[in-house]
Amino acid sequence: MTGILTRIVRRLGRLVEPLIDPDAADRRRREEALTKQIEAVGGSLSRLAGQVERLTQRVDKIDRRQIDHLDSAVAALRLSTKRQATLAERVAREAHRGQEHEFTRERVLRRLHHVARRGTPLLVGPWTGEVGFELLYWAPFVRWAIHRFGVDPATVTLLSRGRTASWYGLDGARYIDVFDLRSPAEFREQTAAVRKQRRLRLFDRALLREVARSMEQRPGIVHPAMMYALFMPYWKQQQSRRWVEDFSEFARITPPAVPGLQLPRDYVAVRFYFSDCFPDTAANRALIDDMVRSLSAETHVVVLGSGTRVDDHHDFSAAASERVHTVDHLMTPANNLAVQTAVLAGARAFVGTYGGFSYLAPLCGVNTVALYSRRTFFVYHMDFAQAMFDAVGGGSLTVVDATVTPLMRALAARGVESK
Fold first, then answer.
1. Is residue 398 situated within a structural domain?
2. By the 8 A CB rule, do 299 and 325 touch?
3. Are 270 and 351 in contact, with CB atoms under 8 Å apart?
4. Both 230 and 282 in a single domain?
5. How far is it, in rounded angstroms, from Cα 384 to Cα 208?
6. Max CA-CA distance within the chain?
7. CA angle, 38 as apex, 35 and 44 as ends, to 5°?
8. Is the dihedral of CA 41, 44, 48, 54 positive or negative?
9. pLDDT grade for 418, boundaries at 50, 70 and 90
10. CA 214, CA 74: separation in Å to the nearest integer?
């Protein structure tokens, strides 16, 4: 019933509408048209909004890529700048270091030139340091300086220990031994703390004054501190080996004559001492015993020792036998290195601990096998030594790790090659 009444009212409304509102039909058409236009504009706006959104997203992506690229470029620039700054600092340090090296070089050369041109006697030393440094660096430096500046060796007095005059190869030079002036105990006490003579110490001054008083003229002094200052860039690995070679004169050692020294016609020289790189252990002692026993089965063996202890090394002693000999009865603190030099020079070969002493035999032209069991040494000293031996036509130096037991026992069983 309600539906019928509603339809009747609507129909009456349409019939009456022209009388009440003549413009209603036009208005409805306009409203419908406007609605369609609004809907069309709304659709266009929606499409436009989508396009704007997509365009915005695309622009954002482009901006992000550009920003990322820019950030990467800035980071790369910063890294490059940092590297350039580091390189510049390194170059500046190297340049400054090079200037320091050149300054030290010129200072030492001026000092040598000054003492040489005075025409007064020259007092060289005292050398109180390691055997290896005297052999590799100090003696070649002294020899170079004497010849470079035209000094007559007859005006030179060498001050060292153990009668090492033959190591310098300066015929006519005078030699004074420190152990003729000081006891081994005092020497050990005064040099134990500092082995490197980088400055003129009180002990050195006292020795120089004592020797100078015995000379007719006040001598010029060439102290090891000059050599230490000049060679330090090489030891710090800031300069090449050539830096040291330019101030060194290499030469083979002519052994000294030692009164009363009687040796077998054919023998191998042996000296083992315990040190940081060859410590006093049961294994090392057993290895030494094997080496001496095996070598003595092949030939005579002359066992060397320093005759006195002046540093932190202590020698291994072997019992004498028909084929194992010692020269302890000839050695004193003042001549021990001279006696050992003479023994090494006449040997078929030398076997011993790797260290400064192992450089002596090759400089006498004798092939050497040197042992270590802990690598506590600087390889560049060994490299320098090998270059020196090659330059003078010296003996070979073979350095072997003693912990490689089978190899060492094989060496002991075979003996060593003749020189």
1. yes
2. no
3. yes
4. no
5. 30
6. 161
7. 145
8. positive
9. very low
10. 75
Q: In whole numbers, what is the pLDDT of the chain averaged over residues? A: 84
Say if residue 22 is preceded by a cis peptide, omega within 30 of 0: no
Output the pLDDT for position 155: 96
Q: Is residue 86 part of a domain?
A: yes
Residue 116 has pLDDT above 50, yes or no: yes
The residues facing 369 across adjacent strands are 351, 398
Among 6-20, 22-36, 113-127, which range has the highest average pLDDT? 113-127
Domain hosting residue 222, numbered range? 118-245
- Token look-up 């030469």 returns 251
Q: Which of 165, 142, 140, 136 is nearest to 358 (CA)?
A: 136
pLDDT tens-digit map of 285-321? 988 888 888 899 889 999 998 655 544 555 666 666 7
* Res 391 pLDDT > 50: yes
Does residue 112 lie in a domain region?
A: no
Pinpoint the alpha helices (H) of 277-352.
Answer: 282-298, 336-345
The angle formed by the CA atoms of residues 285, 290 and 295, to the nearest 5 degrees, is: 130
